[in-house]
Amino acid sequence: MLGTSTTPYDLRFRLLGIPVRVHPMFWLVSAILGWQDQHFERVVLWVGCVFLSILVHEFGHGLTSKHFRDAPWILLYSMGGLCYSERQGTKGQRLAVILAGPGAGFLLFLVTLVVWTILLGISPREHLALILFLIVGVKPDPVALLNAFGKFGLGETGMMFWAYYFLIRINLLWTFVNLLPIWPLDGGQASQIISSVVDPRNGVRRNHILSLVTAGILAVIAGVRTSDLFLTFFFGMFAYLNFQVLQSMHDARSLGVGDDDWWRR
After folding, report:
1. Where are the transmembrane segments (predicted)?
2. Are the beta carbons of 47 and 63 closer than 8 angstroms?
3. 81, 74 in Cβ contact below 8 A?
4. Which domain, by its residues, includes 216?
5. Which long-range contacts (CB under 8 A, 24 or more apart) does 117-126 make?
6. What is the torsion angle, in degrees rounded to the nearest 10, for the CA atoms of residue 145, residue 146, residue 147 and residue 149?
7. From its phi and psi, is residue 198 left (phi > 0), alpha (psi between -120 and 50) or beta?
8. Residue 186's closest CA among 175, 178, 194?
9. Which among 37, 107, 131, 179 counts the fewest CB atoms within 10 Å?
10. SS3 for 197?
């Protein structure tokens, strides 16, 4: 997988008893995603916000896994972050570990709201204006945003504004996307555990079908409605990945690999 191999330029550290490795591709891809108007300082700030947000997300997984007496370690790479565990645990424990990641991201979103309220006096109405703009494209009340940022002498180009905007955007929108029922995103992994409990024989296959359809539809919508090449590629990649898994499962059955009771093991 791109950006997972060990290199001499990896950043390594240990935090809260969990080893962390950051691949150089993480910094490069994050910078590319944030390189919109070529403001170097803003790109650096964006990369910092991405690093903090994904690290918090992965520590949500890692600390929950550690609570279940596992020994996790974290990798930040080109496509985001991964939290590796040595043992699977029960399905309930796996579900808790999976959902703890998005939960940690949403908690950082709430902390961002509280911190900027305390430091800058941003009102709930002003927070809501920006959140609605990010979620549904509703234009923020100009007076609300000017009151929120202009009155502090920061202006819309101020670094405090962009730090706030980036953290809200990442930990609200990316958390929402990560909870979609698309394997191997957290939402898709969670729905796979639930579907395998509800339907032990066919739940995994049906979850991959759901993932394929959901990702495919979103890829088409992203391409037609938004013309966003990154989102189109992002969802298209997951649609193709789930198609490959389904094809492999079909080939295994047609070749007689495994048996009807594979799910009982």
Report:
1. 43-60, 95-122, 128-149, 161-183, 209-241
2. no
3. yes
4. 180-265
5. 120/148, 120/149, 120/152, 120/160, 122/148, 122/164, 123/147, 123/148
6. 80
7. alpha
8. 178
9. 37
10. helix
For residue 105, tell me if it sits in a domain.
no
Assign residue 14 a region (left: φ > 0; alpha: ψ between -120 and 50; beta: otherwise): beta
| Residue 59 maps to a domain | no
- Smallest CA-to-CA distance from 58 within 174, 163, 165 is with 174
Q: How many domains does the chain have?
A: 1
Instruction: Give the mean pLDDT per block of 10 residues along the chain (265 residues).
Output: 78 94 94 78 92 97 93 91 85 94 96 89 82 73 57 59 88 93 94 92 92 94 79 91 91 62 35
The number of helices, as runs of H, and strands, as runs of E, in the chain is 10, 4
Q: What is d(CA 177, CA 234) in angstroms, rounded to the nearest whole number?
A: 11
Evaluate whether residue 211 is within a structural domain: yes
pLDDT at site 255: 67
Q: Which helix (H) or strand (E) holds 70?
A: none
The position carrying tokens 């990649």 is: 237
What are the C-alpha distances in Å from 50 to residues 114, 145, 252? 19, 23, 40
Is 114 among the domain residues? no
Note the helical H segments in 85-202: 91-120, 124-136, 142-149, 159-169, 175-178, 186-198
Q: Please choose, from the candidates 134, 160, 152, the residue with its C-alpha nearest in 3D space to the C-alpha of residue 42.
A: 160
Q: How far apart are CA 220 and CA 236, in angstroms?
A: 8
The pLDDT assigned to 111 comes to 96
State how far the Cα of 57 lies from the Cα of 34, in Å rounded to an integer.
Answer: 19
User: Would you state the pLDDT for residue 263?
Assistant: 34
Residue 29 corresponds to which tokens in the numbers above?
A: 């891809």
Task: Look up residue 111 and give its two tokens.
Answer: 């902390």
DSSP 140: P
Q: What is the CA radius of gyration of the chain?
A: 21
Q: What is the pTM of this model?
A: 0.86
